[in-house]
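[agent] plan:
  1. take the single chain provided in the ticket
  2. run structure prediction with default settings
  3. attach C-alpha cells to the ticket
  4. add a short note for the reviewer (M.T.)
[agent] executing step 1
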Amino acid sequence: MKKTCLQILLVLLAFTAVARDGANDGIISITSLSPADMLFEVDGRQYPFNNNSLTLRNITAGYHQVKVYVKKPKTLPGPQTMIYSKNVYVKPKYYVDIVINRFNRALIDEQQIVDNRYDTDDRNNQNNATVPNIKDPRYNNFPRNNNNTAPRAIDDVTFASFMETIKHESFDDSRMAIARSGIDQNYFTAAQAKQLISLFSFESSKLEIAKYMYGKITDPKNYFIVYNAFTFSKSKEELGEYIRNYK
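[agent] step 2 finished; step 3 output follows
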C-alpha cells in the first residue's frame, strides 16, 4: 500500500513539474484609454499603471482573478472604485488583451502565441510585470520567427474580432489607441490594412494609421491598394513619400 501511494505521489510530482515548466505560460496585458489613474490587480497582487498599460508574462494556464480600480486621491477617504472584476481564463500559450475604454468599459480579446512575436516588442521583464518602453519597434529590421521565415498575417477570425473591437469606439482617437495596440502585436496583409484604415473618419487619422501599419505588412508590394481608402491626392502623395523613405 505504501509503495503504491509513493508511486502515485511521484507521478503527481512529475506532472506538476511538467505543468510548471513554462512551456504553456500565457500573457495578460491591460491598456487604459481612460483619463483616470488606474490600479490593476491580478490574483490579489496590485500593479500601478505606467503610461496606462501593463503586461504580465509567465501566466500559468487557468483562471486568474483580474480587477481594475480607479485610484482615488490620497486626500479622499474610502476604498478605490472598482470598475472591472472578472475571472479571466488564460488558455495555454495564449495572449489575453484587456482594454479599458474612455467610458471605463472593458473589452477583452485573446490570441494564440504561435511564435516569439510577443517577446520582441522591446519590453523589459521585471518580476513578471512588464511595462512597455516608448521606443518604436516598427523601425527595426523586418522580424522573423524561430524558423527564420517571414511572419504570417493575423487570421481572418481574429482580424474580424479586432475590427469589431475598433468599431465599438465612437471617436478616432480611441480607435487609434486600440488599433495601435493590435498592430504592435500582429502582422497584416495589405487587404486587411485597407479594411482597417477605412474604419477611421478623418483623413489625417487614416494617414497616420496607414503609416503605422506599413512595417507590419506581410505583402508590402501590394500596399498600393490602401490608396483607395483616401479621399485626397495629398494624403496619397504623403503616404507614398513615407513608403519610399521607409527603412
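[agent] step 4 note for reviewer: The chain has a mean pLDDT of 76.
[agent] ticket updated
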